């Protein structure tokens, strides 16, 4: 009988697992079935209209323009699995090239160099002086505690169980007023309440980027949004190989085998619901089949508004985590989803996408920030919501017209009132969010002819502003203890793997495509008996004396 793999969730982790089964395991595509609620997943980017046609899509009055719920930075130095995987995926735009070739060629032609990383009402652009964004602003206590955290051996991670970053730095809260923290917090979406354990991993894995966190020169950008640049080529490759994609369905329960001591984890069935018709079916899983589950997705339960409509908060517990939770009721060793999906203040933030019908607003932002599109983040450090924007290289979408501009932004603290719109960010329409942003731009505009003097021109250019509330956007950074995340292939599991940002692997860091792809490779190799020595090799820059010396020098900058 032919083996089969069942993928629960159609995000980058399971797409990668399917590639590894085919490329390294010798499977054929027709042995793989991919179940998903929609086609976009966390690595998104499309027209607003396309989103409204998804099962979980919003019903909006204004469906014009484009939407990107989020965007993750890539990194040439530390995304080893991503580059290896996408070398096997043909480019959709350049015949004969791989997706990896596409991205690295684009990045070489459009390198990132941020010149307006931090801004505030008093100093404007923090380009020079004592508050220059090139200065980390550490105290000796800050340095000592950060170094101590970084140097902690991996075997001692348990000492950081349930410890927040704020608790680790309780004797030096000064660090949260430094340029370093503002840049680190908004580059990676950490909060003071986030996990000190994960910060330790980041300080090790991203130590190469520590010395250039102010310019973000280590950021590698895709030619277009990540849905079109990464996900669509993957899906096309797998479709061409014969993989079956089933959308508008969710897996609601595992059926586990009743083993003698209830210690072996064997999935012998799945309960599946068609979310359009409501029809429920059961699928039998053979003993030699494999199940790959996305146990948690950070875009679950997202709520979307438009130019004149605020979001309506979706209070639903994350569907992907609900399935994980059902598994934990059978086996105590599968972690604790509530640590990540039951604390919205710790994990929530909001994003917004602006579409304009000309380049007037984009050119105003370029003038004020003194940097061209494609140069990463601009953050207002004294904004109530901790507001940031990213003006991508244009076009950011393939369907974007020559006259259109797109940019994206996010607010780390959506429950706080705006500085220029007197209501919580989460209650703002797209129009009010843009009003808030223009207020901040106007404050740092040092010209006599300020952006605030041109509101008529700006509003005439606006096609749409799409706010997105994501209750679990930073859930992967929530405080955790060892054991709160299940192993990628749990002990005693015969056919169930967890591929997500909420599974446990040594060394690597979450909120990266790298983490999901690494989990995919690890699970496939373990199930198929491929030697772990053949796993993609990871760099250990934290052991490189030159890089450590550079980091130490940066600490005193």
TrEMBL record:
It is an enzyme of class 4 (lyase). InterPro entries: FAD/NAD-bd_sf, Oleate_hydratase. Keywords: Lyase. One of its GO terms (molecular function) is oleate hydratase activity. One of its GO terms (biological process) is fatty acid metabolic process. Its EC number is 4.2.1.53. Coiled coil: none annotated. NCBIfam families: PRK13977.1. This is Oleate hydratase. It comes from Oenococcus sicerae.
């Amino acid at each position: 009988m032919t083996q089969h793999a069942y993928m629960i969730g159609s995000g980058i982790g399971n797409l990668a697992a399917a590639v590894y089964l085919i490329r390294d395991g010798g499977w054929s595509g027709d042995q793989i079935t991919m179940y998903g609620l929609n086609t976009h997943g966390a690595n998104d980017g499309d027209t607003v209209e396309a989103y409204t046609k998804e099962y979980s899509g919003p019903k909006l009055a204004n469906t014009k323009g484009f939407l990107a719920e989020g965007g993750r930075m890539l990194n040439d130095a530390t995304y080893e699995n991503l580059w290896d995987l996408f070398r096997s995926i043909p480019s959709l735009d350049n015949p004969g090239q791989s997706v990896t070739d596409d991205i690295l060629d684009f990045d070489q032609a459009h390198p990132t160099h941020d010149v307006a990383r931090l801004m505030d009402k008093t100093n404007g652009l923090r380009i020079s002086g004592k508050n220059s964004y090139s200065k980390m602003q550490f105290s000796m206590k800050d340095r000592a505690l950060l170094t101590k955290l970084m140097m902690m051996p991996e075997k001692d991670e348990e000492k950081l169980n349930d410890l927040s970053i704020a608790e680790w730095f309780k004797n030096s809260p000064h660090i949260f007023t430094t340029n370093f923290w503002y840049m680190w917090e908004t580059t990676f979406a950490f909060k003071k309440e986030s996990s000190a354990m994960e910060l330790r991993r980041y300080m090790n894995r991203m130590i190469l980027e520590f010395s250039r966190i102010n310019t973000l020169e280590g950021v590698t950008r895709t030619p277009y949004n990540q849905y079109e640049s990464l996900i669509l080529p993957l899906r096309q490759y797998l479709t061409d190989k014969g993989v079956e994609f089933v959308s508008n369905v969710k897996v609601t329960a595992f059926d586990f085998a009743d083993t003698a001591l209830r210690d072996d984890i064997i999935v012998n069935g799945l309960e599946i619901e068609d979310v359009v018709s409501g029809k429920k079916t059961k699928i039998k899983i053979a003993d030699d089949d494999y199940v790959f589950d996305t146990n948690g997705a950070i875009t679950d339960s997202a709520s979307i508004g438009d130019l004149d409509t605020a979001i309506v908060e979706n209070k639903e517990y994350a569907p992907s985590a609900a399935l994980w939770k059902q598994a934990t009721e059978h086996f105590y060793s599968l972690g604790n989803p509530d640590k990540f999906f039951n604390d919205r203040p710790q994990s929530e933030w909001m994003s917004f996408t602006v579409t304009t019908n000309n380049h007037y607003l984009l050119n105003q932002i370029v003038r004020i920030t003194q940097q061209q599109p494609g140069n990463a983040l601009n953050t207002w450090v004294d904004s109530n919501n901790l507001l940031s924007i990213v003006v991508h290289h244009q076009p950011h979408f393939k369907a974007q017209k020559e006259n259109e501009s797109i940019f994206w932004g996010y607010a780390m603290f959506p429950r706080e009132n705006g500085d220029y719109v007197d209501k919580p960010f989460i209650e703002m329409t797209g129009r009010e969010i843009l009003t808030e942003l223009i207020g901040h731009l106007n404050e740092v505009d040092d010209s006599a002819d300020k952006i605030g003097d041109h509101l008529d021109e700006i509003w005439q250019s606006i096609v749409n502003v799409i706010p997105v509330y994501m209750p679990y956007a930073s859930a992967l950074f929530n405080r955790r203890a060892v054991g709160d995340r299940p192993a990628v292939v749990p002990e005693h599991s015969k056919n169930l793997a967890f591929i997500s940002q909420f599974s446990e692997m040594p060394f690597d860091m979450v909120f990266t495509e790298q983490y999901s792809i690494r989990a995919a490779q690890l699970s496939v190799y373990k199930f198929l008996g491929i030697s772990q020595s053949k796993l993609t090799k990871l760099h250990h820059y934290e052991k490189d004396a030159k890089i450590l010396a550079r980091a130490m020098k940066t600490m005193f900058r």
